[in-house]
Amino acid sequence: MTLLDEILGTTPPEAYALLARAGRDDLEVLSGPVVDVALLADIPLTDAAGIRREVLALVPFRQVVERGYRAHDDGTPLRCMVIDRRESVSRDAAIRVLPDGDIDVAAVGFDIPDAEYADIVRHVIDDEIGRGEGADFVIRRDFIATTGTAASTLAPKLLRRLLERESGAHWTFAIVTPDIALVGASPERHVSVERGVVTMNPISGTYRHPPTGPDRNGFLTFLGDTKEVEELFMVVDEELKMMSAICSSGGFIRGPYLKQMSRLTHTEYLLRGHSDLDVREVLRETMFAPTVTGSPMENACAVIERHETRGRGYYAGVAALITPEEGGGFSLDAPILIRTAQLAGDGVIRVAAGATLVRHSTPEGEVRETHSKASGVLAALGLLPEVDAGRHTLLADDLVIMRALERRNAQLSPFWMNDQEPEPEVGFEGRLALIVDFEDRFTTMLGHQLRHLGMDVRVVHWSAIDDAEIVSADLLVCGPGPGDPTDLASARIRKIGEIIDARRDASLPLLAVCLSHQVLATKLGIGVDRLDRPRQGLAIEIDLFGKPAVVGFYNTFTARLAAGDSLPDGVEGSIDSTTGDVFALRGRGFASVQGHLESILSRDGIVALRLLAASAMSTVAT
Predict the structure, then answer these.
(1) How confident is the model at residue 394, as a pLDDT?
(2) DSSP character for 454?
(3) Is the separation of the CB atoms in 263 and 448 below 8 Å?
(4) Own/partner long-range contacts of 537-540 (Cβ < 8 Å, ≥24 apart)
(5) CA Rg value for the chain
(6) What is residue 94's predicted lDDT score, i.e. its pLDDT?
């Protein structure tokens, strides 16, 4: 009897997994004992004798607390299946033997009704994005159904339907463990590692197929939709933050590509870099994808906790297959747990779906998006009519569509589109840049760019920096972050001001970015206003001290020079002649910029960073 026969028999193993992974034409059949652990570092990759072993780990969303981020603690375990039996069956042969027939499921409906979810969307846009808390946030709701069928019986049936009727998934899978089973078709690889090469796969922007299938003109309209374009660029920026943290050489971008499924098509990029980190550390540093949380990541988790009333279970977490490699080390393949049914031991089925909320979002559109994202799994459960995924022409075969897609790259920074070989700048080599992180990990990208220019770089969280460090570095970079720069009740905002004062009092070079630029402006007597429409994920061409530069902006507040006012003596500014918005400042020993020179949206970012850092370091009082 094969392992698959046993799984489909009357006494299946207590825990098993059936995996159909992209790029393979087989179904991997796995089984082994289950152990729950507290931390990612505890995933048992070796036995008592030091023998390496393969593990399939289910990482719940609440695990994000390992990074110091907030989450509802729903008790969902970090569950590890230690693989001791494995076989492979051709996908076609597996489909023939997997059980078919009706599925005993009754719909209950979304736990948050459409009108209530639309109200949540409005609140997030107005009260979170509109008040500077971040660029985009993902708020989920769950479709609830019930069944009287045991998970070990239901899971193979549901898997067969997904294999037959869904397309474009990174993993199509059924993972059954005591009291918890997951079955889904996830389109999105979160992170993989193979021979030290790290790949991430941000997917964002959602085209909902008409009932008759994808339409060329409709899809071209989608490709030109500002919301969809900015949504993808923002998640790429957020994942580049992660790549810059875990990869010594940063990350470079490939794409854009299309991910076409039965009912939806998404746009995507691939990000690649090299890392020597343990794969468990890679998992920890990349919890979790911005496509299912938002940005900046730390504040996105706080926003999720405020607007979602219960824990996420495994939704937005990952399934991580960790496999020993020849010669030592481990490979990692970890899809995001989306488009997935969570089957509980009490017969309750949850299918979670989230919409990415940005400044251009509409409540009605985001309600529809959650319906669309849940629809593939709901159809496989028999709760929606099926569509034929195989009858539609592939959009990626249309040259007009692909050329329109590729034109997006003309908007992006060439720095991130290629391998970033170091280009040391005279005056930068060997000098220490200390970057203070104010809860936006754009600091990791800034650090990578400053290393590229020849500097030694260290990043420190604002709560951990001491007075000696503030005055020790050759260049101190006050980083960006969420929030209102005038909110002196915030310890974080006060800390920015203290660091700026200390550097200026000591006549030491300072570079301030975004939120810190706004705080510096207030120190110089320049007012700060809230924008009528946030500039989150927006590229603007500015005059940067006589040089044109396209810079990416992520701001809700702006330093603004009132009509008739002027800058203090000795301070020069890049100022919008119409609005008075102060895009950059420089003076003796300091420079600052409202935009994010490190962003993929900053086509001229590395040139502008070189200019501003050099200006800060070359004009210090002696």
Answers:
(1) 87
(2) T
(3) no
(4) 537/135, 537/136, 537/230, 537/231, 537/233, 537/234, 537/237, 537/358, 537/359, 537/601, 538/230, 538/601, 539/411, 539/601, 539/602, 539/603, 540/583, 540/595
(5) 25
(6) 95
Q: Which of 510, 513, 555 is nearest to 534 (CA)?
A: 555
pLDDT digits (tens, 9 = 90+) for 519-562: 999 999 999 999 998 898 899 999 999 999 999 999 999 999 98
pLDDT, residue 571, reads 96
Distances (CA, A) of 162 to 325, 340, 400: 30, 11, 31
The CATH number assigned to the domain with range 3-41+53-410 reads 3.60.120.10
Q: DSSP assignment of 264-321, as one string?
A: EEEEEEEEEEE--S-HHHHHHHT-S-GGGSEESHHHHHHHHHHH--S--TTTTSEEEE
Residue identified by tokens 């720095």 is 415
Angle at 436 between CA 432 and CA 440, to 5 degrees: 130
Q: How far apart are CA 235 and CA 270, in angstroms?
A: 12
- The partner residues of 197 in beta bridges, in order of sequence, read 194, 274
Q: What are the residue ranges of CATH 3.40.50.880 in the chain?
A: 413-618
3-state helix, strand, coil in the chain (%, to 5): 30, 30, 35
Catalytic residue IDs: 514, 596, 598
Beta strand pairing status for 432-437 and 456-461?
parallel
HEC secondary structure over 162-173: HHHHCCCCCEEE
- The pLDDT of residue 452 is 94
Pairing of strands 340-344, 197-200: unpaired
Per-residue model confidence (pLDDT) at position 385: 85
Below-70 pLDDT ranges, the chain: 388-392, 620-622
CA proximity to 383, closest of 101, 168, 100, 104: 104
Backbone phi, psi, residue 79, to 5°: -105, 130
427 dihedral zone (left: phi>0; alpha: psi -120 to 50; beta): left
413-618 adopts what CATH topology?
Answer: Rossmann fold (3.40.50)
Q: Which residues contact 211 (CB under 8 A, 6 or more apart)?
A: 387
Sequence-distant (6+) residues with CB within 8 A of 170 are 21, 22, 186, 187, 188, 189, 201, 335
Q: Can you tell me whether residue 92 is helix, strand or coil?
A: helix
pTM: 0.91
pLDDT of 49-72, one tens digit each?
999 999 999 999 999 999 999 999
H/E stretch holding 19 reads: strand 16-21
Residue 277 contacts residue 329 (beta carbons within 8 Å): no
Residues of the chain with CATH 3.60.120.10: 3-41+53-410
What per-residue confidence (pLDDT) applies to 622? Answer: 40
Return d(Cα 403, Cα 399) in angstroms, integer: 6
CA–CA separation, 573 vs 562, rounded Å?
13
- The candidate with the shortest Cα–Cα distance to 429, out of 458, 446, 453, is 453
What is the helix (H) or strand (E) element at residue 123, kind and residue range?
Answer: helix 114-123
